[in-house]
């Protein structure tokens, strides 16, 4: 018997019992959509974990700190450490943290206290994935530029005054590409705003205040740079030298000495891809430093998420098992109702394999059709969850430590796997009834009323 004839006979048989066929297919639809939606919640949780961490920090960045607290003989963070770590496999660039504290001055306004000023090159900013909301990042040709954090703009008051936190001033609005600020590393007394004197009471001349143009503003979501400013490396090094010379004159060389001999507070290691992050981190730890990265937290989150996915997938699989029982029951009922038809087919010479295939095709059609409708229904429900249910589902994800834009994510592989699984379940469910149909006696079947 041709396969096309088998399919047509199976479809006609299912169509004669529309209600029962519909209810059986509905069971498969519910089972397939349940398992898809349950797994999609776990996949969305994974994606939201990753999105949340990537929003805080690049997933390919490893933070390196000195390990002198645990081991006084541990290697220091200096230029030699930068050179050593740069040679590790998988490392793209090592960026030392260069920072100092200084006032920002804008006309008669200034920051109420010294803020963090960091020095970076254009290549280092590109490697770290820096972006600005207004203006642009400075290039190697920009020698006197500055990038400002959003929250930093709220700290400007008239020089010598302090911020009234009960009634804070509005953020200073800078014209990107036009406004010029001054960098002041001087120390001042709180009550008179006069430069501090050294231990003998002698006035120490405040270094010259270099001028920089505001070239860009970091966005409000950039928490790392919200309260700091970034300047080109060349002007930073000059400002650092001025500050060290000034502090030596003000406090004395002995009091200004770095006690732990670490040249840098920490290093940021840019790794070539996410798959290499953990291996690079382990290599840095083995070298005697203390390293951490978002990927290790992401891996821990994934372990917890995988456990939740297994639980949710198990719940959905139960519905599909129930649907498989429904398919088996439907096919068994079909055999009892068509016993005489089966007997006639055997008498006129139909092959046992053709009878078996006919019932298997019916079960397969039920599974495939139910799986297809289940996939489409799942996409519809997923869209509704993402569109209308973020508030309710968002609270659940917040309790699990996640946050993101999607409640449910159905990747193509999941839809395809669910469709294939539903079809196979239908085929398996129809195997026992098909075997039973093959085993019926032709004469007994014909006599059945």
UniProtKB/TrEMBL annotation:
List, for all copies, the residue spans of the domain called ABC3 transporter permease C-terminal: 315-441
Chain segments annotated as transmembrane: 21-45, 310-336, 357-381, 409-432
Q: Where in the cell is it found?
A: Cell membrane
In what residue span(s) does the MacB-like periplasmic core domain sit?
21-286
Q: Which family does it belong to?
A: Belongs to the ABC-4 integral membrane protein family.
The UniProt entry lists membrane topology as: Multi-pass membrane protein
What keywords tag this UniProt record? Cell membrane, Membrane, Transmembrane, Transmembrane helix
Name the InterPro entries for this protein.
ABC3_permease_C, MacB_PCD, Macrolide_Exporter_MacB
Q: What is its main location?
A: membrane
What name is this protein filed under?
Answer: ABC transporter permease
- What GO molecular function terms would the record report? transmembrane transporter activity
Protein origin, superkingdom: Bacteria
Q: Name one GO cellular component term.
A: plasma membrane
